[in-house]
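1st attempt posting a full record on here, be nice pls
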Amino acid sequence: MIDIDSHYPLSAQQIAQFRRDGFIKLKDVLSADALAHFGNEITRLTIDLNTEQRPLEERSTYDRAFLQVMNLWEKSPLVGRFVMGQRLARIAAELLEVAGVRLYHDQSLYKEPGGGITPAHADQYYWPLGSDRTVTAWIPLQAVPEEMGPLGFYARSQSVAFGRDLGISDESEEKISANMALHGFEFCTGAFDLGDVSFHLGWTFHKAGSNVSPRPRSVMTIIYMDADQRLAPALNPVQSNDRDQWCPGAREGEVIATRKNPVIWRRA
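the predicted structure (as tokens):
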């Protein structure tokens, strides 16, 4: 069944778990039919629009991690329908404990066979946003066994300041992983079954292993933010770039209500 709009009921315990741990992995969020219907187009566009042509061995650690293409919702009506789905957006709003969410941007992450690790990092390093009410839905388009490099999370790390100034790199992997181990943060990882979707806060540290399988790992992500999220001053060049790319015309201190940032779900 192709259903991306119906309500996925969350328990009070799941919302409390997300508040505590900064992430949650949910079962049976999307059906196999829905993932195939939308996933084939997402994967096709990712391969067609990707500009990385170098062999893996010639790339940086960041570029070996995955091929990435952003805002596919603007490239295809079918993908646009998926990104605007109510089911995932309502989950995001309920986990964030906000009245509604709008889109920051989407991002396809295609880890090729032999693709390297995704180094430890926190997503919000890249985002010029005024609050921590941001969440990424990590949506595998196929099952992700351990050998394909599933995403893993450092539980309760969303309050840690160390490492927030590090982008994805060898340095971030070394320093953040060491700091997490030093302070005893549990690293939670494991396979994703078909239909599983994880959600993590913008400041939750996470990483993924290499894809040592012969198959690509195709994942779609949707980054949601509080519908009342305001633009903050850019703290680094990548935040300036993100502001210009994904929040065109937004003003510092004002709600990010641009044409690229529509409200996807709001409580009636």
